[in-house]
Specification:
The chain is mostly helical. The chain is 61% helix and 6% strand.
């Protein structure tokens, strides 16, 4: 039975560790081609027969090989008459290359004398032994890392191209060892929870080694833990049938027992080993913010909370919730206590600011995604729904000792999904509200400081000498601050920065601030009074910066964006921002990035409302919008040279950043994504709506990458509604076209079509070249997806004409490539190849760009349909490399899917299955159900081709269910596939 061996799927961390190199040291490899180096220089090892002698001696690991043994190794039972002379000749030549001390003659034979670390095989053996020791000791992560290093030492087939029976036997032995190591590493992958990532590799391996039951067993477990129970059972059915046909035997008992556990939906089997090894250092989160060096007082609270955390190992619900008014020092206390308790949580500490006091509190779903990544969970393994993420989070924490600091919570409902559920972990929560509805939590009410503690904090910041000379005035100051730590810190910092002031001067400034209110209201007013004190002491330029920067939405702001908003040179802006950091009115989130405490931001905005004219507030936000639009336009132009979209965007009065390096430009775009999209949503006024919409056009990479697709969609929806309300058809048409693309990429073709048709209706009433080009192009794409090919062709030809009239060659190329796909669907293959080729030619004239990758993708599809699979694979592989470099996850996944289709056409189903599995992983959270169903269809075909018919039927049934739910025409083809295999379609 011919079987496709398939690709060898490698884990990213399998980077080959180098053998230690010194200037003249010899080193050798046999786990691949037989080679020798002296230092960094590759030595000539001669003919294949001469390399066979070198390999035979190296595999002896320093032991002497007699001439007779070497003759047997070379020629077996039929050596030539001059065999001994030939051996001596090869040995003499090798000695000249390696040196007299390395290749020695003794006892009528030869040996190579070198250290163990000089040969890759002995290094691999030593690493494998260390891995086994780590596994026995329970350190699975270390064992997995070491085995990956061992596997990384292979460079293709061992003893490649070395002749002789001895080499053949050793090659078989080393390949078997490699397989055993791979099985062990995959077993460890499953034990540490990397089951989703393992499915693709196991699919390829089971195709290459169909009778190896251990691989089938691992694949069943990986599928089951990935939520693919039906496929796991189908693997067993495929295995049983194959063993009966090929060998006339039943599966081994372990495999049959595994099938029964899966049938019972065994909960123990559904999760990794109960006692996972501690995570390696890179996966041990240490997210606590820095504690303040002058932490003062609160000794009773520190002791109380510290004792609770110290006993978390024996408590199932070790949750402490610290409540108090804004500025009372909840976060400072919690961070200080958390740092002191770190030794009790050796597996790490997680931290998040939940932004509970702001208008947009953090979503638990988003926080869980961030926590899971910090705990080592791959993006592909993170589920979509809140409940699934919470369940995976609790499973990931099980067996670990981790402290979770949930800062600034809105209410109990927000944090419940974020709480650990097993002994050993603990949560420390801060909030402005008292969480009486948080069952089992230890509640701590944090009040203002005592006068003694307040004075002590003030003294630590200002200095004992100045305070000692004016103790009464200092007491007046802390009393005027309401004994609030944040207020005291602001006042003391200002005094410490002004050496000419006395404490009495500061006390006199506070004399008018007599605000003693009841407990709830006094808190906000007390904080406001403290902020007013700090704000009133700012220099004029600092005060302006403070109140204007507070206007910007977004989690933080970069230095360059802040400089644009303030209309200042970045160096001047940095001095002002650092001064504000010194006063504790602004926090430095990271080098070059700044943020407000949520209460401070509200206060800053109140100051702007009070102290700035409306026109100046509008100008500040307009400058920020200009900065983002100008910079994003530059990134767009760099990514898509020749695309005239940037020529049709609204002009900006203020400049942005400029980049020459592709990677730095993308880094900026993705780093600023949240701030940029928040800016879009904030600029809904009629005067700025067009620029806000155009910012989305310039930042379309954020939608196509999948990384920020949801926030992008929200922003597009907001500006569409704002454009409708403003009566601006120009902005509305662009927003609807953009929203149509977002829905189309998510597989929501009904909504996409609605938006695109609305844009087309608006097009005649607006003098907008961009809409006249892009609205028909987008609607044509959607019509193609919906199998409305005649309408799609007409729309795309209209788009081609419009792009051509605009001299937008990139747009014309895009429309030609889209038209190529329509012709493919209509059976006009030759025309499809011609159109895609024309598109690629246009892209080529403009240089290697992201859009060229789209063209190669389209050409690859057309070539595949034209029965030119090798050319198709070349073009698709080229496109895949660009999509990966440009972080375009959607297109990366779709290109993997198309490559799988190509490998199917050339009868390499194992490779197709591996590629389809990779596509499923990449498209896990993007692209929508329709695309996933298409990948499942191809995966089923590939699995059927490698003899896994039952698993194939599971994939087809799942695809059919999706297609029928979407009323997609593809359901007919999938039903036929099921009918051909004798399986009911269940439709």
């Amino acid at each position: 039975m011919d079987r496709d061996n398939g690709p060898r799927v490698r884990v990213p961390e399998q980077r080959a560790p180098s053998i230690p190199v010194t200037a003249d040291a010899l080193r050798f490899t046999v786990l691949g081609p037989v080679r020798a180096w002296r230092g960094p220089q590759l030595l000539s090892s001669g003919s294949p027969q001469q390399r066979a002698l070198l390999a035979a001696l190296l595999l002896r690991e320093g032991r002497t090989a007699t001439a007779g043994e070497l003759i047997d190794a070379f020629w077996g039972e039929d050596p030539p008459s001059q065999a001994l002379a030939t051996i001596r000749t090869y040995a003499s030549r090798l000695r000249k290359i390696l040196g007299q001390d390395t290749l020695v003659s003794e006892s009528g034979g030869y040996a190579i004398r070198t250290g163990r670390t000089a040969l890759d095989l002995t290094l691999a053996q030593d690493l494998a032994a260390e891995a086994e020791k780590a596994r026995v000791a329970g350190d699975r992560f270390q064992a997995r890392t070491l085995i990956n290093k061992v596997l990384g030492l292979w460079d293709g087939e061992a003893l490649a191209s070395v002749p002789g029976p001895y080499a053949d036997n050793q090659r078989t032995r080393l390949e078997e060892w490699r397989l055993q190591l791979t099985e062990t590493r995959l077993d460890l992958d499953l034990e540490v929870g990397c089951h989703a990532e393992a499915v693709s590799e196991l699919t390829a391996l089971t195709a290459a080694h169909p009778l190896r039951e251990r691989l089938r067993e691992l694949l069943m477990v990986a599928l089951y833990r990935s939520g693919r129970q039906a496929e796991a059972l189908a693997v067993y059915a495929d295995t049983r049938r194959l063993l009966a046909e090929e060998l006339g035997v039943d599966p081994r008992p372990e495999l049959a027992q595994l099938q029964q556990r899966i049938l019972r939906a065994d909960e123990e089997l559904a999760r990794p080993t109960d006692e996972p090894a501690p995570a390696p250092a890179p996966l041990r989160p240490a997210q606590l913010p820095a504690t303040v060096p002058d932490f003062t007082g609160r000794s009773a609270f520190v002791s109380e909370l510290g004792n609770r955390l110290a006993t978390a190992e024996n408590s199932v619900m070790a949750v402490s919730a610290v409540a108090g008014i804004g500025g009372v020092g909840k976060t400072t206390l919690a961070v200080h206590v958390a740092h002191q308790a770190r030794r009790h949580f050796p597996d790490g500490q997680l931290y998040v600011d939940l932004q509970g006091a702001g208008a947009r509190a953090a979503e638990p779903e988003t926080v869980l995604g961030s926590f899971l990544r910090a705990l080592g969970t791959a993006d592909s393994a993170i589920p979509d729904t809140l409940d699934e993420r919470a369940a995976l989070y609790r499973s990931t924490l099980d067996g670990r000792r981790i402290l979770i600091l949930l800062d600034n919570a809105h209410d109990a409902a927000q944090i419940r999904p974020l709480l650990p559920g097993t002994p050993g972990c603990a949560a420390l929560v801060t909030s402005r509200v008292r969480m009486v509805d948080l069952a089992g939590a230890h509640l701590v009410d944090l009040d203002v400081m005592s006068p003694e503690e307040a004075l002590q904090l003030f003294t630590r910041i200002v200095g004992a000498e100045r305070v000692g000379a004016e103790r009464e005035a200092a007491l007046d100051v802390v009393a005027a601050c309401g004994f609030l730590p944040l207020a005291i810190r602001i006042a003391a910092s200002r005094l410490a920065a002004r050496r000419t002031w006395t404490v009495s001067v500061l006390a006199a400034k506070l004399a008018d601030e007599r605000r003693r209110l009841d407990e709830l209201q006094a808190g906000d007013l007390a904080v406001k009074a403290t902020f007013e004190l700090g704000y009133g002491q700012l220099e004029r330029a600092q005060a302006r910066a403070f109140r204007l920067l507070g206007l910007a939405d977004g989690p933080d702001i970069s230095l360059t964006a802040a400089a644009a908003l303030l209309n200042l040179d970045p160096h001047v802006a940095e001095d002002l921002l650092e001064a504000l950091v010194d006063t504790s009115l602004v926090e430095s989130a990271a080098p070059g990035r700044y943020r407000y405490h949520d209460l401070v931001r509200l206060y800053a905005r109140a100051c702007a409302e009070r102290d700035e004219q409306p026109v100046e507030r509008e100008r500040a936000l307009s400058r920020l919008l200009d900065f983002y639009l100008a910079t994003a336009s530059g990134v767009y132009a760099l990514e898509r040279p020749g695309d005239r979209t940037v020529d049709h965007l609204e002009g900006t009065e203020h400049e942005g950043l400029s980049f020459t390096d592709h990677r730095r430009a993308l880094d900026w775009l993705y780093t600023e994504a949240s701030c940029l999209l928040s800016c879009v949503q904030q600029n809904r006024a009629p005067r700025s709506i067009r620029r806000a919409v155009d910012l989305l056009l310039a930042a379309k990479d954020l939608a196509e990458s999948g990384a920020n697709a949801r926030q992008f969609e929200s922003a597009a929806t907001v500006v569409r509604d704002a454009a409708v309300e403003a009566g601006d058809p120009h902005a509305e048409a662009r927003a609807r076209t953009t929203l149509a693309q977002v829905h189309s990429m998510a597989g929501r073709f009904d909504q996409a079509e609605d938006e695109a048709r609305e844009a087309m209706l608006l097009a005649p009433s607006v003098d907008d070249v961009w809409t006249h080009c892009n609205a028909p192009n987008e609607l044509g794409i959607i019509a193609g997806y919906r199998n409305q090919q005649e309408e799609a062709e007409a729309l795309l030809r209209r788009a081609c004409t419009a792009f051509r009239a605009d001299r937008n060659h990139a747009g014309e190329a895009s429309a030609l490539c889209n038209l190529s796909r329509v012709h493919l669907a209509m059976g006009r293959t030759a025309s499809a190849v011609k159109l895609a080729g024309e598109g690629v030619a246009l892209y080529n004239r403009m240089g290697l760009t992201l859009r060229l990758a789209n063209g190669r993708y389209a050409l690859g599809l057309a070539l595949a349909r034209a029965n030119r699979p090798e050319e198709a694979q070349v073009r698709l592989t080229e496109a895949l490399a660009v999509f990966r470099e440009s972080r375009q996850r959607l297109w990366e996944g779709m290109t993997l899917f198309r490559l799988a289709e190509v490998r199917l056409t050339v009868e390499h189903p194992a490779q197709a299955a591996a590629l389809a599995e990779q596509a499923l992983t990449v498209l896990l959270h993007i692209g929508g159900e329709w695309r996933r169903a298409n990948v499942l269809t191809v995966l089923g075909q590939a699995l059927h081709g490698i003899g896994q018919a039952d698993r194939a039927q599971v994939c087809w049934r799942e695809a059919l269910s999706v297609f029928e739910q979407l009323k997609a025409p593809e359901s007919e083809a999938v039903s036929r596939l099921l009918s051909k295999t004798g399986a009911p379609s269940e439709s």
